[in-house]
């Protein structure tokens, strides 16, 4: 079947927009082979800190940009003015936060992390600064995306990818077996992309401070900041709890397992960027009782893709990874791939619920739903990780993802009627999850290859039982012009 021009363009855009994400995967063999297991774990905690401060110093401005550019009540010049004010607020707040942590960062690190686990000077401060620089750059690339400035967007992301990877490898070899190299490479590349963002802004909309005219920006960005910080909590807090309660080797094993599932993340990002717009367009602007005939088929395809993506990683990664990663301690991660991968099965309904709340311009309801699920996940992490280690973290995160679906559904159920086949959307991934848990338990008795092969075979049968009629319809819908 011929691929349409739109499919090809969508694929290229997805690949380029995922380059910052893919740089972590490209660098994984270099980090794992040149750092000992504990330093590998320590590096990934510093990177998680960087991601946290990317969120904190962006203060929701990146998520405000799409709302601004899709606001039909503002003309082109007005949008440029509001964008200048928004990035001015982000720049001022980001620099202020960095200044504050320059003075209190050491005390904060000592109060949060066990002694001699992480060091604020210089590593922690470098991570915070890198987060600010990356966050500012992300706001500019988001602006380019929604302004349809594809050439600038492509150049920016390729520039970021090339310098992040090359400088990280260069400094890694320069400093030897030390986390300074990777962190310095990320910091220097962060400075370069920050300057690139300022260069593009100098052509049309430099940052400006104008608080009197920025009430709208502050109100909307505050709501979106709540969303981004909650998403960080749901996706990265587990590393910090593990750091406090387990060893750095445990952190390394856990993080390596999540990195091994990066291909699933990448695939779902691409499919989501392709499938979800098709679903939304099929609704014809009806966000109260949307027609679901096409949507259900596409949702089923998205769900099946998440299951088979996890199975492919369970089978393929243990075969491929030893060719590139020469640290046997990290191979313990392979056993965790299936049970960590279960959380990906929630992505389909989560993306649907989140999308319709955004389309209805109700981000506050999204924040409420995520807030309650974050509370549950944090509580479970605090209870389960000290008792059960990595397995406790996996269980807490999975339950947290499930509760995020429940709370988002509660935000929608009385106001939006969606004809979703919950028997398929819940029973199917639930049964596959049971199969993967059984494979994890059975590994110690029959070995990884036998347990994983059995899980894959059972999952195929379950897929055919639930979706044998849907897959052909999904193929036609996906590739129609």
How many strand units? 0
- Indicate the structural class: mainly alpha
Return residue spans where pLDDT drops below 50 for at least 5 consecutive residues.
none
Count, helices:
18
N- and C-termini, Cα separation: 12 Å
Mean pLDDT: 89
Fraction of residues in helices? over 70%
Q: Report on the biggest sheet.
A: none
Give Rg in angstroms.
22 Å
Give the SSE string: HHHHHHHHHHHHHHHHHH
| Shape label | globular
Q: Roughly what fraction of the amino acids lie in strands?
A: under 5%
Structural features, described:
This protein has 481 residues and is mainly α. It has helices spanning 5-17, 19-34, 37-58, 61-69, 76-112, 120-146, 150-175, 180-202, 215-245, 248-260, 262-283, 293-324, 337-341, 347-359, 363-412, 422-446, 448-467, 470-478. The chain is globular, with a radius of gyration of 22 Å. Helix 4 runs parallel beside helix 6 (120-146), helix 6 runs parallel beside helix 8 and helix 9 packs across helix 15 (363-412).
Question: Which terms would index this structure?
Answer:
481 residues; 0% strand; globular; mainly alpha
Write the layout of secondary structure elements.
Elements: H1 5-17, H2 19-34, H3 37-58, H4 61-69, H5 76-112, H6 120-146, H7 150-175, H8 180-202, H9 215-245, H10 248-260, H11 262-283, H12 293-324, H13 337-341, H14 347-359, H15 363-412, H16 422-446, H17 448-467, H18 470-478
Helix pairs in contact: 1-11, 2-7, 3-6, 3-9, 3-10, 4-5, 4-6, 4-9, 5-6, 6-7, 6-8, 7-8, 9-15, 11-12, 11-14, 12-16, 12-17, 12-18, 14-15, 16-17
